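SAMPLE LOG
Freezer: B-3
Tube label: C17
Construct: single chain, 125 aa
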Amino acid sequence: MANPAVQTAVCTCSFGAVPMLLPVTSQQTVQMLSQLSATIMDNKPATFGMCSSLGNPTVAAATAAAMGALTPMPCVPATPAPWTPGVSTILICGNPLLNNTSTLQCMYGGVIQITATPAVNIQVP
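STRUCTURE (predicted):
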């Protein structure tokens, strides 16, 4: 069973310093537990604090300036693709439901995942 993601789901990035709450911007009508339901198109996370990925140009430049000592810089996620895989059998406003098994790739190398969601368990066929 998977847990559906809602607006207050907690997300982490493999290169981020702090977790963040998932912003739901793909739709404003469907709710679970009085919170907006997330879809795979909710792929615009705000920030994970500081980024430590050398794939991030600002981290690479700061690290080079520090003679190779890893120097984290502010996180600005670059996530042009939707979450995968999503729940293709449950559509919200035409987009698959997002659940806690989905991941989101950052262009700088990070993997974003949902680590906690207050939504109830559902059975997905």
